[in-house]
User: Fold these one by one.
Assistant:
Number 1:
Amino acid sequence: MQAKKRYLILLSAGACLVLLFYLGGVPLPAASRSRHDRSRNGYRPDQPWPHFSDPLHPFLPWDQADTEEYNLHISPTQKRDVNTSVYKGKRCRMDSCFDFSQCQKNGFKVYVYPQQKGEKISESYQNILSTIEGSRFYTSDPGQACLFVLSLDTLDRDQLSPQYVHNLKTKVQNLPLWNDGRNHLIFNLYSGTWPDYTEDLGFDIGQAMLAKASISTENFRPRFDVSIPLFSKDHPRTGGDRGYLKYNSIPPFRKYVLVFKGKRYLTGIGSDTRNALYHVHNAEDVVLLTTCKHGKDWQKHKDARCDKDNAEYDKYDYKEMLHNSTFCLVPRGRRLGSFRFLEALQAACVPVMLSNGWELPFSEIIDWNTAAVIGDERLLLQIPTTVRSIHQDKILSLRQQTQFLWEAYFSSVEKIVLTTLEIIQDRVLEHGSRSSLMWNSHPGGLFALPQYSGYLGDFPFYYATLGIKPYSKFTAVIHAVSPLVSQSQPILKLLAAVAKSQYCAQIIVLWNCDKPLPAKHRWPATSVPVIVIEGENKVMSSRFLPYETIVTDAVLSLDEDTVLSTTEVHVCTNCQQFSHRFKHLRYSFLKKKIKATTRSFKFPYFLCFTGSGFCDSQIYFHCSKRTADLLLY
């Protein structure tokens, strides 16, 4: 019995030793590593190196994933995906993939590569480049640039498209300033091709930023990329038509509640939602029309519903539907974005988004909950009930916001491009970036420059929102270009007349004359301060500069020879108090005298111009002596 116990103990000990040798827990004399190798890797005899049965791969930074050592541990498929993916730098952010040094030194300047001979370029991309070259950000010196834009057309990266640029990978890599895409911005509208329509651009963008349409939230790099809208080749370069909201009727009734008219894909990506629209179509107030009649061989693949859908599709005019519906469905197509998005905005038809995973255009700055209904493709059957439950006041607010956003940021290629650049500038110069209120309320981020002031109260546009009432008095700025030689000169009479106004807080004489400043005693004594300052560059536009001595919201800009009485100043500075007596004022000069005419309609806010320029709330306007008209504000 004792012998059996000893044999069991010996057998157990032997099994334990074999197991230790197998797991590597005990170093063997014939180990492959030399003493030199172990010491080089931090091995010390008094501190055994821990060994695991399933060793972890060494950590490498994301941007070193294509090194030879890393490639030993991944499959050929994984290696190909990493090297060809448009989002190789998926972890890129401004602090890791952008060099701020040039921007801090020279400001936010944008350089466009010179166009290479023989390279084809689409009209849409030419419009983008022309907008940048005509903007205040453009520089022709790459040494001064903070941001670089390719002259190679990257808008359409669908290999089946005639606009597709071949060999772009080689062409981009050969650019002398490419630097792995650092501080570069790439514009793109279409990526991928049939059948998957991936977001691959077909070349390595490195550390470049993307201004991309139809970008998914999965691939979108927050505060690095910019999501832009999908726009057609006919989208105007500048200007653009205004929105179609003509009347703010309450309740805001339209003929249809919800409409859509577009292609139906029988199979493949983007087909599920559009194939299911017939379930909620009622041909009355919910009109959702699709057609299979697209593509060369559509008849070979048509289903049982195609003929009926096509016949009903042809009965309705798309524009008539668009302009007579309260809500417009914007389902995804083959890609996440759709032309229907901008069409709905312009038509004051509240977009109902059905494109799961789409990063909406300019989502970094725009609060889309104030202008659109964000739906879920999986809850299509609930959409009609949802939109019918929205209160009329909310509908009116949504429609008004669609018009503001359309006209502020989307009505032209110019506005889309400038908005993109302003967003990036706000990131680079973060201390002077715009607030959400600036972007989402009139007049919009393109017109309220944060370089002017970081305090919203300095902008008259936000008085109502902030509950601020402007100061009731004005500052008169008189532009002087003639020497003061006589006490009977018009400028002195003008100064005395303006100073007598109870609404005048101070008078500033901007001396742009070649002669020296007159002595202080040459100016008449007045009841308000008279400040004489010398113009820096002696040009007429210097009257519009925001001088620190101006302490009021309203500024009356005057020529030195303007003939104006105190009564006329009263009328022009306090028009609202006269609105019960003058329904509409229109001043016209007739033999240097002012004639007032009336009309049968009334405006709550207006300014009167009389041979001068009146600035309300720090926005300068000027009117010459020969033209005086009413400004509706």
Note: The longest strand covers residues 256-263.
Number 2:
Amino acid sequence: MGEINRLNTFPHIMRKCFKMGFFKIIPSQGSNKEKTRPVDLVEDEGPDVVSTIIGKYGRWQLLMTFLLSLFSLPCTFHIYLPTFTAKATKFWCSRPDNLSNLSITEWINYSQPINACSVRKLPPGITAEAILNHTAPILANLFEKCTEWEYDRSEVGNTIITEWNLVCDNASLTSLAEVVFLIGIGVGGVIGGWISDRFGRKRILMGMITAQSVLAILSLLVRSYVQYVVVRLIMGFVSVSVVYAAFVLSVELVGGKWVTIAGVCNFFPLPLAYLIVSLLSLVLPNWRDLQLALSIPGCLLIALWFVLPESPRWLLSMGKTQEAKLMLQKAAMFNKRELPADIDKLLLLQKSETREEGPSVTMLFKGPLRKRTICLFVAWFCMTIVYYGLLLNIGNFNIGNLHMTSIILAIVEIPAIAVSVPILLKGGRRIPIVSSMIICGLACVASELFSIAFEQEWVMILCLMVGKFAIGSTNMMLPIYTVELYPTVVRNLGVGASQMSAGLALIFIPYLWKLAALNEHLPMVTISALGAIGGGIVLILPETGQLKEPPATVVGKLPQYDSNSPCNGTFTVADERGH
């Protein structure tokens, strides 16, 4: 009887003592020795009711994980498109009609000795034959600005650069379009995360994928550069919301080690999307045709509104017990599992207390979450510049055919994601993330050193493959680590805040290669340095992997309380987030 009283009293005391919303910040009271131990960052006040009812992983979770991973495809399409639709190519002042049969080389040598932004004034009556015979008169030091250009379309077709003549005085507008898009990503990461935490994962996911599909179609109808920029700004906002709402929802449907595996599955479509864009751009070189082809998958995903569930953990955290019960009953039936006889009691035990306030950004800067938020902000900033610095600047490496290089680096990322699964399951989180970022940095330095020593394309491609393999693993592992560091009630908000940092980093990506004006090796050296900084900051954070599985819980029975267990980290009611 005393044991029962103790079991019933402990949660009651915890609820009264730590009323800070759904999650409770519990300061560490252990010794220094205890502090060095990996701690369960998102501990549980009771059994994981979701896994108890539907299992940690089953046929239903497998289907949902697959469907949710598909949402990464259209978002990645829109992020990667500028690699081909905004590719800078050679250009020159257009030839007048009477010189249209003159070769491009002869025309450039005669009329544009300085650059392609100014053209020599042509004397009256000049002919192509006179230029070819080098008898054409030259009006010395008489130049005028070019107003029309011709472009080299051997590698890519019509692009936004060729359509709106974004060269010479307007060359900076190409980078501006992508900066605006990436600003949208940064803002969308926070606002989208807040909306998702307040109104649900499914609503924000389906609402944003619908908006993304509409914007993709609108981008085909734009007739001016300003219209294009406005569409790209909103597109960035909704795209990041789609990606991370799908990611958070997928990991909240599973338990135990399957959290890691489900998270990894969300990243497998990324290299597939890179491959699709690269291959389609060969068949559809014109940017509007390519945009249309890549807009179709997003439209098809809207139909999944009738299939996808809301996150049961979010429903429980919001006190929507009956909605959670109905959803869990359907999932259990699909998994062919018998429902516990006292399912209502289990759900009530997990029901959150009424909160005085909803999730807010200030929660990310209270207690232990403060250090995690700041460190993750730095880590995401560095990782994003390294990953997208390599990914979106493939055209700046000048190492052969753009499409072939893109395909090779996309294929490399597939095994990088696959090998991350056993690493995450066996090796924890911090050390793999640190190692992969440092390896990427070393590979970038090696590519510069070898390019000086050997001057062969295959050596640079090999080093870039190693670097892309390593940072591809980081790009998959860091989101999973981020999710594990935040409790359910602010999980999407925490991930969104990390995306604000990533969005800030992305703003610098279009300008990264401008550093080459100071020194041609500076861009890659910068990437290497940021890789080391990002990896080092992760060491400050606590480990979330390699933790003991919670003991099997008899359905309907509360777990015994171990008074010797340190009470560190973040305390939640409805989510054990079993590592």
Note: DSSP finds 24 helices and seven strands in the chain.
Number 3:
Amino acid sequence: MASDHDGEDILKPLIFRLHESVPEAVREVLLERGWSEFDEQEQDEADWNLYWQNSPFRMTDHRSIKPWQRLNHYPETVRITRKDYLARHLKRMKGIYGPSLCEFSPVAFIMPNDYVKFIAEYTKERQSQGKKPSYWICKPVDLSRGRGILIFQDIKDFVYDCMVIVQKYISNPWLISGYKSDLRLYVCVTSFCPLTIYTYDEGLVRFATEKFDLSSLDNVYAHLTNTSINKFGASYKKNKEGIGRGCKWTFSKFRSYLRSHEVDDLLLWQRINNIVMLTLLAITPSVPLTSNCFELFGFDILIDDTFKPWLLEVNYSPALHLDCSIDTTVKKRLLHDIIELLNYKQTDTLRENKGPGTKTSYAGRTHIPLRTQDENATDDAPNILASRQESEWTATSAVQSLLEVAGGSFKKEAIVMGKMARTHPRKTLTSQLREKMNRPKTSSQSNAASKSKQLPGARHPAHASVQVTHWLPTTELCSYKLTIPPYFLSTKDKRPFPRVGDFVLIFPFNDAALEASRNGIDVKSIVQEIHKLMNKQSPPGQQKVKKRKDYLTFR
């Protein structure tokens, strides 16, 4: 915790609030760090520093955030954590920036909407001479922990009774001693504007507990790596050849294994980082601008026998339960480093506004109590897409906040614009804003604009460079200064910390990427920078992988 004021102020501990469904490990780590738990009977509603729950927060919760507080979710991140939404967003990215961009995700069909397309693809493959028919995997779009998964090759075995996603099954996984595995990579996003992504150096390698066998597609212990399934298998506690007991390794052990077989794993991790950046880039323009949040994702990555990484899915609120000693080693340290990443200062223990310029919210000053988890919410399919009413408020307040820093007369007209949008829904807030910006300026507006250029720390006028992406509908504008200073930037150079504990910054990876995400997300420019990065990585790496293929299939 950073020190920035007199020692007498550090007597008050930091306070955490947890929803009842949060794993006990979170409470244990916070107590180990000297935090105290929030008491609803004894403390004021805003007298806390961290609120952690498995379900999403409402926009009103984000709206009432204080400078000393953090929430463990951004709004609308379900856009990549539901399997069907993820498939749609990656498909859209491919359509705009080329099919080679997202080759890390298997071909996908969302049922029942894509049933005709799937049958056409299935029939085409069956009729192709000399081509071995593909294997397919069917997953319910809103279930987790391996539930409801079906693997099939013949269409007659394909049966479903809910909304599912069907993808080509990766039938050539890289095996260790004959066992299939995947990687659980922890990714923390401290900001979507500017986009700031950290990956965790340590993680989990999860194994199936029976040897891989395509002749027994119904054997979940051979084809699925979910711990929630394999811990009930007959071989879970046995000492398996090359694997050991249980079904998990740490990344540290995994790296040691690769190097002991003379495999250079640098290219693998570079490719995985590219997958993470491109996947998050797909939703960044549509995430509402909010202060003092972070999001921990669990990326599931499978490696095939050519050492190519594939994205299987992205998990919302990845499991933090401690099922074994390896979980304890990885997850408790992960939680400690997350708290370090949140960059609390000693003034945050006071839990009060400091200075005349501090506001209680990025979009308004009215305090609205945080809600508790919806009784109907589930951790499998959190419904965090905002309601129509909340979306209307978000759009209005975002425009108001954007114009608020530019001057009084501009602010008044912004409020009127919000009212007009409700009265005349056909005239959108975006179109009204565009009209306003294209009109000749009055003298008062010109003065306001010139004042906004003199705001401390502002690189651009507050209303400049408003960018609305052409491929995702978004009214959450990212080109204005938040009223709460970002916690994730260094006070020295106003840049993200390059490393915090075992969290390593992977985006922004250069100055061009930083600038392209700082004042409205410029997806095209960032994609170009990632392409440059990938071109530098690929040629020597591909040759290395081919040379080491005999080691990668070691059994």
Note: Confidence is low (pLDDT under 50) at residues 3-10, 355-480, 541-555.
